[in-house]
Design a protein that fits this description.
With about 290 residues, the protein is mainly alpha-helical. It folds into two domains: about 90 residues, Orthogonal Bundle (DNA polymerase, domain 1), CATH 1.10.150; about 160 residues, hpI Integrase, Chain A, CATH 1.10.443.10. It is built from 14 helices and three strands.
């Protein structure tokens, strides 16, 4: 490991970045060095900018991926190599993300997903937990039985995104499903352990595959990855009249603007709404003479 790489990792740790963020940033700056085959501290701002343009034009990466590279490069050159901040930020701007409304499932589709789509009790319990508690995939994979508070009907999410703990819902129906699952499998450490290594939690890729297989078995249209269940959780709560600030806390969003993206209206709901013209008592025009 080079001294610069070591300093970069140490600075990430001291700033309290999560392990996943550390891994992502290290990967991004490694790709930058690999692209130019030069020491990172010898690259100019213009060279780094050219690399980001390469990611956008040649590799056609998504804005979120490019912004992760921007964040990693800014961190390296601002925090570790101490370059002039304003010049660096002008050279390495963030990519504007398109505004995409989350796609959600209707309640009828979710009923089909959990019944027809889930052939295995563990898969059904896992997907119901993701939806019923509005969890991120990694949060669901790292649940433990001790995180379930049946008396208060809450699930404690430990060190979720942003390294924050929070509480979310544990409905009686989900609790009954998890109890039935526990009686069948008796997981010892993780609530949803890896199949071949029960001492380890289920990996994200396995959880994603469970979701895709269930969607296919249920004959449903894909609406993105498993995160669509979290989108559905938030949307259904808002449609049920739950205050947006409460939904924000359940989801673990730092900013209310993030939660407000769920204030869209599903197509099924649009079909039920009468247009304003329907409220007017209008007589037809007489035929033209």
């Amino acid at each position: 490991m080079t001294p610069l790489r070591q300093r970069f990792i140490e600075e990430l740790v001291l700033r309290g970045c999560s392990v996943r963020t550390q891994e992502a940033y290290v990967h991004q700056v490694y790709q930058l060095a690999k692209f130019f085959r030069q020491p990172l501290d010898q690259l100019s701002n213009e060279q780094v900018r050219a690399y980001l343009l390469h990611l956008a034009r040649a590799r056609q990466l998504a804005p979120s991926s490019i912004n992760q590279a921007v964040n990693a490069c800014r961190f390296l050159y601002e925090r570790v190599l101490h370059r002039e901040v304003e010049a660096l930020r002008q050279a390495l701007p963030f990519t504007r993300k398109p505004i995409l409304r989350p796609q959600v499932y209707s309640t009828a589709e979710l009923e089909r997903l959990f019944t027809v789509g889930c052939a295995h009790p563990k898969h059904r319990a896992f997907l119901m937990t993701v939806y019923g508690a509005g969890l991120r995939l990694n949060e669901a994979c790292h649940l433990k039985a001790e995180h379930l508070d049946a008396a208060r009907q809450q699930i404690r999410v430990v060190q979720g995104k942003g390294r924050k703990d929070r509480y979310t819902l544990l409905s009686p129906r989900l609790l009954a499903e998890l109890r039935a699952y526990w009686r069948l499998f008796r997981p010892q450490h993780w609530l949803f352990p890896a199949t071949r290594s029960p001492e380890q939690p289920m990996v994200d890729a396995t959880g994603q595959r469970i979701y895709y297989h269930a969607v296919e078995r249920a004959g449903l249209r894909r609406k993105g990855g498993i995160h669509a269940l979290r989108h559905s959780f938030a949307t259904h709560l808002l449609e049920a009249g739950v205050e947006i600030t409460v939904v924000q806390r359940l989801l673990g969003h730092a900013h209310l603007n993030t939660t407000s993206t769920y204030l869209h209206v599903r197509q099924e709901r649009l079909a039920q709404i009468a247009g304003p013209l329907q409220l007017l008592d209008l007589s037809p025009l007489p035929p033209a003479s």
